[in-house]
Amino acid sequence: MRLSRSKREGLTDLWLAGPATLALLAFIFIPVAIVAVLSFTNYQFGALTFDWTGFDNYIALFSSSVGRRAVTNTLIYVAIVIPFSVGFGLLVAVGLYQMTQWAPRWSNVFKTIYFLPVAATLVAMSVAWQMVLHPSLGIVNQALFSAGLPTPSWLSDRSLVLYTLAMIGVWQSIGYNMVLFLAGLAAIPAELYDAAEVDGAGGSWSRFWTVTWPMLGPTTLFVMVVTATNAFRVFETVATMTKGGPAFASDTLVYALYREGFVYFKAGYASAITMVFFAFLLVLAVIQFRVVARRVHYR
Amino acid sequence: MATILELRNVTRSFDSKVVLDDVSITIEQGSFTALLGASGCGKSTSLRIMAGLDRPTSGEVLLGGSDVSEQTAYERNVAMVFQSYALYPHLTVAQNIALPLTMRHLTPVRRLPLVGAVMPGTGKARQTIMDKVHEAAEMLGLDQLLNSKPGQLSGGQKQRVALGRALVRDPSLFLLDEPLSNLDARLRVRMRSEISALHRKTGKAFVYVTHDQTEAMAMADQIVVMIGGKVAQSGPPRELYEHPANRAVAAFVGHNAINFLEPGDGIDMGESVVGLRPEDLAPSESGALLARLESAEYLGSEIVLSLRGAKGAEIRAIAPGDFAVPATGSEIRLGYAPEKLHLFDADTGFRRERAA
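YS: structure for the whole thing
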């Protein structure tokens, strides 16, 4: 028996979209739902029972100084990494893009160098950074010392450690943003630059504001979203270099989540942290796609 | 008439590839010049060199009698309309049209959104600019669209905005690079007459790049035919049509592709190749040319006949619409006026004048 055409097309749709939908459900939506449920319990990893505790985990997170510390540290980290990483990524991309015209080989060499931190394992890079930033033996402080400047303890000074980590985060993500911006730059029609030149916007500054920056709008939006999500997830540098210390000065949401869930086995509390983390990302995504996207695609 | 722009022995090569080879073009004040040629013939490069967007490898560019090779496009005060329209997608129609004026009349500080607005004089300058924008928009029928973004416009409207942006700054010269090729056929014909009207209204010289000989014939008073990076012939449309300088120009110009008859194909004029336009060849009882009918296209006002000559040459002729087409395969006599024959050298392809 042959099925009607619409039924056959329906089956095709199901066959195409079904597996991915099932995987999404099984590996993302259901786990998130379970975590959401767990966040309202005092469940301990490996325990057989748990009690409902309502919003206690969330109250604990936002009322304890350690929990608040993790939240504000993460926000500060993100607030530093986004502008610097996006700004430098754009600067490097524009520079290397123009360099392609007169020194294509060198431009490619620099592109590779800038991309290396992205390709390298951040854990291994953290070891390198730890050596570079060592209070007495590190190359940075050696240089500062010989220049007669103060030599701060980059990773053990409570007031400095978060900014040091943010700088490493910027260093790590510039290359990725550069690649995205380079793709965006290559997609700008050459005729627009010609038009700008004829219209008197041919100087490098007015060219940038009249053509490059507006035309990179969609790319910039995407880069910001990617940078923000990655910054919110900061973990490797914290785990390998500072363990959230000293005195929780570099504790972040994901590191706290790891500590509570996998060191202290407080699954319920860790789930609450996860939900807060999730909420931050959701709000960010909604803001950027709803509010900014409309201004960026020029409709 | 005074010369506004002149390319003098301009050569342009990219690496070892010669794109323009010793090109000399003269644009008269107030004229409408079409640069006509197939793609890759160098017509767009010529235009870009006139605009100042590209520089000649050797040769001179003279604007109003003085050498402008060191001047940028903006300093030459030429306006250019691009094939892709090249509108700024983030600006409204009004802002797009106003951009050349804001760049000219407002200093960078005055262009800043808030700081500029509070500086004395900015409001007045902006008012002057907006008056000119409204004037240009009215001329092009864009008044209702001033606050739209280019993304919301149709192809024809975008084209008008691009024209408006060119018009608003009162340039010394208008350069148009295949401005109609992205429009559909009907709109193209309408924009054609609009551009012609604009040319009459402004009285400025227009240089118009196109690969469409119909556009060039319909609009221009001077056509420069470019083939392989060289100027093949330049002159008024009628001269190009009636006295093509060589076979290539004869083949390029004219709505119906010209017939070329080698010696022995039925019209013998010595060693020369004979060019005869289909519209100059029609069925006639007493015609001298005999050919076999292969197919006929009825177009209403006329019938295009495809025929084969004695030696197998393809011949096209045009019969009046009321011509009774005989069965395919039958022999037809075709007549022509002897003065309509074009003679070309069989080897060089250059035109030969008949001994009168």
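YS: worth flagging: The domain at 64-296 of chain A is CATH 1.10.3720.10 (MetI-like fold).
IM: good catch. Also The radius of gyration of chain A is 24 Å.
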